[in-house]
Design goal:
Layout lengths: L11 H14 L15 H6 L3 H14 L6 E5 L11 E7 L17 E7 L2 E7 L10 H14 L3 E10 L9 E9 H4 L26 H14 L5 E8 L8 H9 L4 E3 L3 H9 L3 E11 L12 H25 L9
Parallel strand pairs: 1-4, 1-5, 5-9, 6-7, 7-8
Antiparallel strand pairs: 2-3, 3-4, 5-8, 6-9
The structure holds ligand LQZ7MJT6 and guanine.
EC number: 2.4.2.1
GO molecular function: purine-nucleoside phosphorylase activity
Protein name: Purine nucleoside phosphorylase
Length: about 325
Amino acid sequence: MGGGCEAINWSLHQEARIDDWLNFNVKQPADPSSPFIMLSVSEIVSAESYEECRTTADWLLSNTQVRPTVGIVCGSGLGGLAEKIKDPQVFKYCDIPNFPRSTVHGHAGQLVFGTLKGKPCVCMQGRFHLYEGHTIQKITLPMRVFKLMGVETVILTNAAGGLNQDYKVGDVMILKDHINMPGFAGINPLAGPNDDRFGVRFPCMSDAYDRELRQLAHDVASELGYDNFLREGVYCVVGGPSFETIAECRMLHSLGADAVGMSTVHEVIVARHAEMRVFALSLISNRSVMDYDSQEKANHKEVLETGMMRAEQLEKLVSTMVTRLEPIDNNAF
Ligand SMILES: O=P(O)(O)O[C@@H]1C[C@H](O)[C@@H](CO)O1
Ligand SMILES: Nc1nc2[nH]cnc2c(=O)[nH]1
């Protein structure tokens, strides 16, 4: 087997069958006014291409003087962090070229540029999820836009169910690792042709959650007196939007997951592919139901309420961490 990409020698018969498939599956709608615009295979393959991300980054950079080095993603009910940004410049997602729309209650749907304790940053007040119907490339497009704008460190927050029975509602879990359940079925933001301008074909994920940033979080939390509700564990992402069954919670916990959510991991994979540093935390907004006799029921209202209850401490923790972030020394080896 040659070292490089082996040219595929399609037979005439195979090429004919591919043409048939393309004609059948990606033909233009019969009725031109049809709302269902069929994408050609090349458009599907190139969706959220480098050029699209570059267009979005250039549009944003031409509309703000801020040159962010830190990118923050606010999860459900955690958008208050963006309110702490000084001299904010706000862009609604619907006004940003190629950006999807936020549709989930508790996700404002705007990008906020400014400074956090003097550090230039950009904050997503609301994120995108697979269950909203967005493609996995679309929900992770902001990560690539962050990279192209010069962001070096991303801080991701989310609300998650507590699988670990020691966890209480309101605890904050630093992510030390993740389990990408959709990934086992091939739902991975890096699937498809790799664009080397973003990163390598097979990026390592065993170091996804920056050890120094995790230690910084522990140090800051101790200084702030947050040790009593600070945890560190494994986050498992599922597709949603339905919450887990009892059997699913028990399975995920037996697999080593401490918390379960519906986001974050896809963003982490793309951020690490682009070699940005990653720190992520989960607000444990509800305890996953593990017992068939339990009366508890996971619900989004509780998720948002817990976010409001813990918002102030989370904002203080993250903003203090941002103050202490050191620029990445690109000459370090
Ligand atoms: O964006 P995050 O992961 O914080 O949102 C969580 C997961 C679901 O989207 C929602 C369920 O309540 O909260
Ligand atoms: N999948 C999932 N996501 C959540 N987000 C907040 N709570 C939960 C939960 O219990 N399960």
